[in-house]
Automatic annotation (TrEMBL):
Protein name per Swiss-Prot or TrEMBL: Uncharacterized protein
Sequence ranges of Acidic residues compositional bias: 81-97
Region (Disordered): 36-59, 74-101
Biological source species: Glossina palpalis gambiensis
Cleaved signal peptide residues: 1-20
Gene3D superfamilies in the record: Kelch-type beta propeller (2.120.10.80)
Length: 347
């Protein structure tokens, strides 16, 4: 009888801590699965179900096997001679105890079977599945009417904060220009904001704002201290009018745009430059006028508003990078890196 009590107490403790047991086992299973799938993770794909190598039986599984082999009378015999005398003297009570012990063993086996099923289930269900670089289409057209989101375009620039994506400018050859709006600019003189949480677009600025730039194709855009800064760009026809101006856009409830007044050694007016901000300097690298391609480096002090030349590339005279436009520029903590882009005769 004492053995039965101990077994029941043990099983009740297991049930009370079931969540902890399952979580622990699942965690161990995950790491076994993770170590065997390093190659899959490198390829960016992880199987939803992964086979696990055979493992030794858990203490719970061994207990199940033992309980199923128990006989109620074996447990009675283990309780000593005092119980045997009591059984001989009181047959009715003995039969009742036999039934009770038999029922207790059945209940214990059922409880352990439930625990075993939980553990088995945790082996085949991963706690987390990695999905790196997953692309999702934002179906904002399902909640926005036509005109409440930007129409198709190319040559625009986008940048994102933690909560919002911003889209500036762009071009669509099928667009009919508004001849009453600033002599019919063919480009989209628009700044849009897309809210990731609400799945909705909002038009912050448009052509009716007289300070909006006209060179809004293949310009460069960066986010700095909760404002947007654009630099360079071309009007239409492309390359006929280029810009080396900087514009600042506030992006709050009452968005505004203004042209920065700058001095110093200004970069060439061109489109397709790459820009990045480091230590309150705006660096611009490369670009094209439509005829000449450069990879020259200039920087603007955002406090003094003074431009200065940092480096003039001469690939024909030394081992300098080729001129390019529409490339990407990033700061990695130590270096400013320029990546690919369009060259004079190749990509």
């Amino acid at each position: 009888m004492k053995i039965l009590k101990l077994v029941i107490i043990f099983m009740l403790n297991l049930l009370n801590n079931l969540e902890t047991f399952v979580a622990t086992f699942a965690n161990r299973s995950y790491f076994r699965r993770n170590s065997s799938m390093e190659q899959d993770e490198q390829d960016g794909e992880v199987s939803q179900q992964q086979e696990i190598a055979p493992r030794p039986g858990t203490p719970v599984e061994r207990l199940i096997e033992e309980i199923e082999g128990f006989d109620a009378m074996d447990l009675i015999n283990d309780n000593g001679s005092g119980d045997e005398e009591s059984v001989n003297e009181e047959n009715d009570e003995d039969e009742e105890r036999d039934n009770t012990r038999s029922n207790t063993v059945e209940i214990a086996a059922w409880i352990l079977k439930q625990l075993h099923d939980c553990f088995e289930q945790s082996k085949t269900q991963p706690t987390y599945t990695f999905t790196p670089h997953r692309l999702l289409k934002c179906n904002y057209k399902a909640v926005c009417e036509f005109g409440e989101y930007p129409t198709a375009r190319s040559g625009h620039r986008i940048i994102a904060s933690e909560s919002t994506l911003y889209s500036l400018g762009g071009y669509n050859p099928s667009r009919v220009p508004n001849v009453l709006s600033r002599d019919g600019c063919m480009l989209f003189q628009e700044l849009w904001a897309y809210n990731f949480a609400t799945n909705r677009w909002k038009l912050l600025l448009h052509a009716n704002n007289s300070d909006m730039p006209r060179e809004l194709a293949s310009n460069a855009l960066v986010l700095y201290n909760n404002v947007l800064i654009s630099h360079g760009g071309t009007g239409y026809p492309f390359g006929e009018t280029c810009s080396n101006d900087c514009y600042v856009y506030t992006i709050g409830e009452n968005a505004q745009v203004m042209k920065l007044g700058v001095t110093g050694d200004l970069p060439t007016a061109q489109y397709g430059p790459g820009i990045v901000i480091h230590n309150d300097y705006l660096y611009t690298i490369g670009g094209t006028t439509g005829f000449d391609y450069t990879c020259d480096v200039y920087r603007l002090n955002l406090h003094t508003k003074i431009w200065e030349n940092v480096y003039i590339c001469r690939p024909d005279m030394r081992d300098d990078p080729e001129g390019r436009y529409r490339h990407e520029v990033v700061y990695d903590g130590s270096y400013i890196c320029a990546w690919r882009g369009h060259f004079a005769y190749r990509l």
